[in-house]
Structures are given as C-alpha cells and as structure tokens.
C-alpha cells in the first residue's frame, strides 16, 4: 500500500547508502518525457499502491505470505488495480506539503478505454499490451510482465494527470507484500480509532483508542472498508492517518539515522518497489524527511455521489470541479498582511484558509490522528 512508497523513498537515508545499494532498486521509464513538469522546485509525486498478490516479476507470492496478509488464498485476487492513488504535492518554498487521495472507484476517462474506474487503468493497459506482444510471438513471461507493467504505469499516470489537471514529476509503486515488509521493519505503528471495529474480510479486530499495530494488523487496518460509516472513503482516511503516523515514527524514533534499519528498509525496497528513473533515491530521502513532524496534510478529493456503470458500483465525479478543487488545495498559502502603519498596533490579518473537502487528515501532537 501507499505507506510503503514513502517509507521506501526514505530508505535511501542520506549519505551512507552507496551506489551498489541504490542500484538494486527497480526503476521505470513509464513517466517518460511527456507532459508538463512543475516549476520553482515544486514536486508532484504520484504514489500508487497495487492490490496485486504477485511480486515484481509477476510470480505468485508464497501461500504463507498470502495467509499472513489475510488477502485471499489466490494470487489472482486483486489483479493489477491501483487501489491507492495519492498525489503528494511538495511546494518548492518549503511550506506544508499536501497529499490528495483519489478515491479508487472514481469513474473517469481512461485513454484508450473510455469510461472506467480510475483504479483499473493500470490493469487494462497491462493486459492489452501483453496481448499485443503475444500476438507478435513474444512468449517470455518476464518480458511480457515487464513491458505490460510499463504500459500499465504509463496509462495510470496519464489518467491521473489528465483527471487532476496537474503535472506529475515522479512516481512510486508498491504492492501488498511491500507494505507488509516495510510495516514490519518499523516494529509497529501507532494509530487511534474513535470506535471499536471488526471485519472478517480484512482481518480487522481493533478496540477504540490509541494502539500500536504490528505488520499484520497494519495491513488489516489500511485494507478495512466493511463496517465503516463511509466504506471505501473511510478506508482512504485510514491510509492517510497510517501514512502520517508511519512517517512520524521514522523521524521521531531515529530510524532515519540507524544504519541497520536503513538497510532493512532498503532490502524491502529492492523486493517490492518501483520508482521512476529520473527520481534519485537520495533526493527522495530528502523530500520524505521534510514530511516528518507533521509537515503534511491530506485531503480526499470530492465525489458527486454513487452510481452504477456497466453493472458496477462507481463514484460519480465532475472532472472540472475536481480540477478546481485541486488548484485551490495546491495554491500557495497566502502571506499575512503587514500591520497598518496607521492605527498603531493593529494585528496582521490572518491568512485565508485553504478550502478543503471536509475530510482533511493532519498529524496530531502524538503522531496518531484519530479516525473511524
């Protein structure tokens, strides 16, 4: 899931990770040279969490791992849907970063496929590319998987870029195994629940209040959507809260300064993550460290409501309205007006707050935002 994207980005961990380690992390050309890029040092990073039960080579995960993930007994479950999509906006002026979560069931235009759920862009393009190559006589499984995934990444990136109307400068992709490996490397992450909850599908079984989750519990926490007031939208809030708490722990516990833990994270990165070729891990580490201490807030992009399309439940969206919301949320924070020279001692006007969807998630003082 998406938390692994940031944790792996942090796995570069500064000055002691040398070329032989960094070269082991997989990179992708999927971002290419197409599309505008951000200016003024600002970075837009797309984080994609696949719900795949397969490794980076397309091979099924071992049954034992599937059982630990509580994610179904078959490697075919989940397919290649990007069940987590977050655009992380890091301003070039050092001000607070913003993460925009895109609900996975938003019905959008997918290039070459028409109206589809946004999460399906990756898998649809991957399957089509593999079929095309197979028709040309390509039989090598590794080649089909590699080129199919590149096609999937390109289409997902293009879909998100067009839907949100913003440049995408870098991306990171991870699957369920990556989340599990990295959550375990943290030795537990603190979360806070407003109410007790259970869900047999995800394996969630949590009391109310603050608690520390191990790797298995962490996966259940971010995957649960049944028995939550807003279903899938509440799951998005949980992912945001977990991400904030995990990044907070990386910094506050000194993990970013422990060589042994650094290489543990990096080993997991080599197994489970793909980043774009133009994003050096050293740069990624610096950017992710800036998020520690609560220097980031998350928003879930608005939907119009729920509907049915081709006999599937979908989120109905208004793309122009979504793009307006994105522009409002990512605009630079206004500076306070200086005190008037006349009238002596008048206070500067408070900056106007940025609009939000009503579902902002920010880091609390204890590093564990409370969610449903």
TrEMBL record:
Cell envelope-related transcriptional attenuator domain location: 81-251
Pfam families cross-referenced by the UniProt entry: LytR_cpsA_psr
Signal sequence coordinates: none
Domain of life: Bacteria
Residues covered by region (Disordered): 328-372
Family to which the UniProt record says this protein belongs: Belongs to the LytR/CpsA/Psr (LCP) family.
Protein name as annotated: Cell envelope-related transcriptional attenuator domain-containing protein
Organism: Streptomyces kronopolitis
Lineage: Bacteria, Bacillati, Actinomycetota, Actinomycetes, Kitasatosporales
């Amino acid at each position: 899931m998406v938390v692994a994207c940031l944790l792996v980005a942090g796995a570069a961990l500064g000055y002691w990770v040398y070329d032989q380690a960094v070269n082991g992390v997989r990179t992708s050309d999927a971002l290419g040279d197409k599309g505008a890029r951000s200016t003024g040092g600002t970075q837009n990073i797309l984080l994609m969490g696949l719900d795949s039960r397969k490794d980076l080579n397309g091979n099924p995960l071992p049954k034992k791992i599937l059982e630990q993930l509580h994610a179904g007994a078959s490697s075919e479950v989940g397919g290649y849907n990007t069940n987590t999509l977050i655009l992380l906006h890091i301003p070039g002026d050092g001000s607070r970063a913003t993460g925009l979560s895109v609900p996975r069931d938003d019905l959008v235009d997918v290039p070459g496929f028409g109206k589809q759920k946004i999460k399906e862009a990756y898998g649809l393009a991957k399957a089509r590319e593999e079929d095309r190559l197979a028709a040309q006589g390509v039989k090598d499984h590794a080649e089909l998987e590699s080129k199919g995934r590149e096609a999937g990444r390109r289409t997902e990136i293009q879909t998100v870029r067009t839907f949100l109307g913003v440049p995408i400068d870098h991306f990171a992709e991870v699957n369920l195994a990556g989340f599990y490996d990295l959550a375990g490397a943290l030795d537990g992450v603190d979360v806070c629940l407003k109410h007790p909850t259970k869900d047999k599908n995800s394996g969630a079984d949590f009391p109310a209040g603050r608690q520390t989750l191990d790797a298995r519990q962490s996966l259940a926490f971010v995957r649960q959507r049944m028995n939550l007031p807003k279903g899938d939208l509440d799951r998005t809030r949980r992912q945001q809260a977990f991400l904030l708490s995990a990044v907070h722990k990386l910094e506050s516990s000194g993990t970013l300064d422990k060589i042994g833990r650094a290489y543990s994270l990096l080993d997991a990165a080599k197994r489970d993550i793909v980043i774009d070729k133009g994003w050096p891990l050293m740069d990624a580490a610096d950017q992710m460290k800036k998020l520690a201490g609560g220097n980031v807030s998350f928003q879930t992009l608005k939907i119009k409501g729920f509907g049915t399309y081709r006999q599937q439940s979908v989120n109905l969206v208004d793309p122009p309205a979504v793009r307006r919301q994105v522009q409002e949320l990512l605009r630079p924070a206004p500076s306070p007006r200086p005190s008037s020279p006349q009238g002596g001692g008048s206070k500067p006007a408070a900056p106007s707050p940025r609009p939000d969807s009503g579902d902002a998630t920010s880091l609390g003082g204890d590093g564990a935002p409370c969610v449903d």
